[in-house]
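Friendly challenge for the regulars: who can give me the structure tokens for this chain first? No prize, just bragging rights.
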Amino acid sequence: LSRSVCLCVSLSLFHLTLTGMPSGTSTGTQVTTGGNPGEYYAVTNNQTGFMIVGQNIKQDYTNTNALNGDSYTLKIDAQAVSGFNPYINVGLLVQQGSSIFAYQNAVSVASANTSGWTTYTVSGTFGTNGWYQIEGDPATPTAPSLAAGVTSKFGFYTQSQNFASTFKANFDNYKLTSTH
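First reply, four minutes later:
Bragging rights claimed.
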């Protein structure tokens, strides 16, 4: 049994700005032409402190299937635009209610990739370890519930750890696949 979640670019991709520990802003803009192909999502992180994390959640898809123990692959096309020193990390997000969790398994988008689109892949196994709660009630669990019946939304994060910097990157063709 294989399940596939396509996080394809659409206007329903909702961009959140992380507040709290990181300092700065993260903005996302839907661009209708110039992607790989067609439209794409442009992200700018303006960092004023140690770290900034931009959150991008697909709001028009939910999953209620059990995921614990399933393998997953997140593929995303990325194009560095400016400000990378020397890379940014891109990884999996899960939203359950008002809580958003980032999975530590990420892929680095290199600053050298300014001339075109490159497909990046991050794979792993859904489990209870390796998650960080980055939004929501601190009294809730620090990892998402991966049991059947729990409504989950998915997306990706962009993260950088350079003081006082701005980076811009373009993203397209987000695809999350899980295999049971």
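Confidence is low (pLDDT under 50) at residues 7-21. Residues 6 and 134 are 23 Å apart (CA to CA). Your move, everyone else.
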